[in-house]
Amino acid sequence: MSVQSPEVRTGTTNPLQPLDPAEIRRTAEILREQRQLDEKVRFVTVSLHEPDKREVLDHDRNDGPVPDRAAFVVLYDRRHQQTVEAVVSLTSGDVTSWRVVEDVQPSVMLEEFFSAEEITRADPRWQEAMRKRGVTDFSLAMIDPWAAGYDIEDPAGRRLLRPLTFVRSRADDNGYARPVEGLIVLLDMDRMEVIDVRDHGVVPLPPTSGNYVPELMFDDDNRPAFTQLRDDVKPLEVTQPEGPSFTVDGHAVSWQNWRLRIGYTPREGLVLHQVGYEDRGRLRPVLYRASLSEMYIPYGDPAPTHRIKNVFDEGEYGVGMLLNPLTLGCDCLGEIFYFDATANDQEGRPVTIPNAICMHEEDYGISWKHTDFRTEKVEVRRSRRLVVSCIATVGNYEYGFFWYLYTDGSIQYEVKLTGVLSTGALADGEEPRHGVVVAPGLYGPHHQHFFNVRLDMQVDGERNSVYEVDAAALPLGPDNPYGNAWVSQKTLLVRESEARRLIDPLIARVWYVVNPNEITELGQPTGYKLMPGDNVLPLQQEGSQAFARAQFAYKHLWVTRFDPQERYAAGDYPNQHGSPGGLLQYQEADRPLENEDVVVWYSFGAHHVVRPEDWPVMPASYIGFTLKPVGFFDGNPALDMPRSTAACHDGDGHAHNGNGRAVPNQEVTG
């Protein structure tokens, strides 16, 4: 059940709290009054204009003045084909900044997403191509408005989309089972017209359905191998009779020794602010701000329908605009607290996504254990984690974004990838070279998913240094007479030009973020280490869209000096942009990094060679990284976890389940 009062308290607005519906509405009113906006000016995004970091910290630490409450607005003027950035002070009621940004395209707006389908369906050239494939009921066409990417053949200065077509057999059918191969459409979203239709030849629509909803799976010509849903899945319930261990005050969260603020933007979605750990009565900061800064998904198939698939799901669409309203017991399990998220429509009106962010606790197995075999005394503590998550639907794919805080001081970020493949069709008897067959006449193209997370580090304060740490075997000699010695080798990243790094699991490479000004009683600087998980690099070569536009993905770790204007790994406006913005540009100044206010950017990629098991809907796969304390604490911070209330052993030869009930040995399977 959802958490209720008194655990939840409503506090005064914090400077980092997301805009509420009234503030978004007021922002649009001020802009219309003071800038005389007409109906051709569209509101792309309205979000909090975050105050200067120094103002926020002074306000928190010294009870300083309340920073100005303001909104940052991206507008698109269709009449003049201009992108405008505006700052609106909600404190004074004034437009304090108005800047036209030349030669950029803001992200695709939701109204464009839906109108693209209508424009495409109405085009005679597209209709003729569909008739060639035997499709005459155009209402069954499912049209995905892919971002145009960057193609030198595209008309310059026009706002473009490049939709792909799929065909349903009925209204709620899985359309991705029948892709219209080789049919490419180019739209002008300012003029609301089709610029071009290219038909690269008819490939028959795949013959079978790909339904995954029970009511449809057992009621079509492509019945699954099983005849009914499983009936041996017993209920699994998560209960906390005394309620959860966290408290919520507005968007501020306290859990165990952790303190943090939950944020949201229409572009990034879930944001964590001011993550700190209370250690012996002192709140010690770890992160000032943590967010997903970009996503990039390049496809590895040169076929006409698939080579165009090069999307920045954050910069070209806005992940925060696409969050799901989450459902208790389905998306999140246990004692749940939900945060609503408020975005905007293109008229500047607030749009609330209920239950957009989910927070709950999970048992996470053993935290630590030791059995003294001499005395037979056992001590064991269970681990627990706080989960803060959201899920976005971006066309065919679902992405779950999960932050985990652990009782041992660790922080983990995980992306869960699921949803439906963006498929291709095959001629009869053809084998795909750049993909895998998942059904008759249907294949999933090779592709990759790249993510970049921006970590504005604040380990025990604003001045940190970053070290690359490798395991290095010593050569045989006086220091290593037996050939078994190795050391942990630390290399300081002194300047930004040195801070473009790759993972290397063969030498256990990690990166330490330390505060050289805070020394532990053991004589070490306090720190956290970034531990990579699974990873990969783009396989697209120089001359490809990926190489030209997504340089952030070609290195795993980047470090920059803090600049509040540097927020996104691929730059502010990757839509239709042909050059690498973002991190490459940020590092051009080659600023010093030692003992400075640093930002760590970590890129990680999921390599997807499709499996038949990924069809018709993908089992979730997982990818991410972990931040672990290294010298941040003087010892194990989970040492003070209490013993479990249920006994672990009672000497009767019986194991116990999680609720303390003795279970006969034959029932215990693991």
From TrEMBL:
InterPro entries: Cu_Am_ox_TPQ-bd, Cu_amine_oxidase, Cu_amine_oxidase_C, Cu_amine_oxidase_C_sf, Cu_amine_oxidase_N-reg, Cu_amine_oxidase_N2, Cu_amine_oxidase_N3. The modification 2',4',5'-topaquinone is found at Y397. Residues 106-204 form the Copper amine oxidase N3-terminal domain. Residues 237-639 form the Copper amine oxidase catalytic domain. Gene3D superfamilies: 3.10.450.40, Copper amine oxidase, catalytic domain (2.70.98.20). Residues 15-100 form the Copper amine oxidase N2-terminal domain. The active site is at D313, Y397. One of its GO terms (molecular function) is primary methylamine oxidase activity. Its EC number is 1.4.3.-. One of its GO terms (biological process) is amine metabolic process. Residues 1-20, 645-670 are annotated as: Disordered. PROSITE patterns: COPPER_AMINE_OXID_1. Homodimer. NCBIfam families: PRK11504.1 (NF008559). Belongs to the copper/topaquinone oxidase family. This is Amine oxidase. It comes from Pseudonocardia sulfidoxydans NBRC 16205.
